[in-house]
Amino acid sequence: MNRPETTFPRQEIRLERRLASYWRVTFDLPPVNIFGPRETIRLAEIITAIEQDEQVKVVVFDSAVDGFFITHYDFLAPLEESAKIPAGPTGLQALPDMLVRLSKAPVVSIASIRGRATGVGSELALASDMRFASREKAILSQWEVGAGLVPGGGPMARLPRLMGRG
């Protein structure tokens, strides 16, 4: 299946080292911040940099796309692109690997959510130490639940711990 060709001015995940101790990671993947194989590789590089830099203490994840933090995984990308990404240092597949590594990183990780955080976006938010969400625009969800599927990025393990027994 061929994807329609649409050109956007930027398609990137930016790492900005604002201070030696404070980094900002901005998702700028218009029009709706869909996360795919290319983004998986880029975010894994950023997670590795966070783990290796002893000076960084705080990392904030945000979005440059109005109304969207990160949406789901890119289901239109050829499957072989995702399948060829090697397992990460934890032995898990690339996406759950980087989320586990983020949750254990020796930094304070913060998800700043002003828009939809679905699928991968929700999983990244749950793997972060803190989540700040806009009352006006934030929507968090796991679309897999409605389809009777198990989410792949670990939310079933993280969400109950964050909510507690009550």
Describe this structure in words.
The chain is of the alpha/beta class and 166 residues long. The chain has one domain: Alpha-Beta Complex (2-enoyl-CoA Hydratase, Chain A, domain 1), CATH 3.90.226. It has helices at 37-52, 79-83, 94-104, 120-127, 143-147, 155-163, and strands at 12-17, 22-28, 58-63, 67-70, 108-113, 115-118, 130-133, 139-141. The chain has a five-stranded mixed beta sheet, with helices on one face. Strands 4-6-8 form a three-stranded parallel beta sheet. The longest helix is centred in the N-terminal third of the chain and has 16 residues, at 37-52.
Secondary structure class reads alpha/beta
Mean pLDDT: 86
Strand portion: 15-25%
How many distinct folded domains?
A: 1
Helix amount, in percent?
A: 25-40%
Q: How widely separated are the two ends? A: 46 Å
- Can you tell me the residue ranges where pLDDT is under 50 for at least 5 consecutive residues? none
CATH-derived architecture = Alpha-Beta Complex
CATH fold descriptor: 2-enoyl-CoA Hydratase, Chain A, domain 1
Query: Helix count, per DSSP?
Result: 6
CATH class: Alpha Beta
User: Major sheet: size, sense and barrel closure?
Assistant: 5 strands, mixed
Helices and strands, in order, run as EEHEEHHEEHEEHH
CATH superfamily: 2-enoyl-CoA Hydratase, Chain A, domain 1
**Cα-atom Rg, whole angstroms?**
15 Å
Shape: globular
Order of strands across the main sheet: 1-2-3-5-7
- Number of beta strands: 8
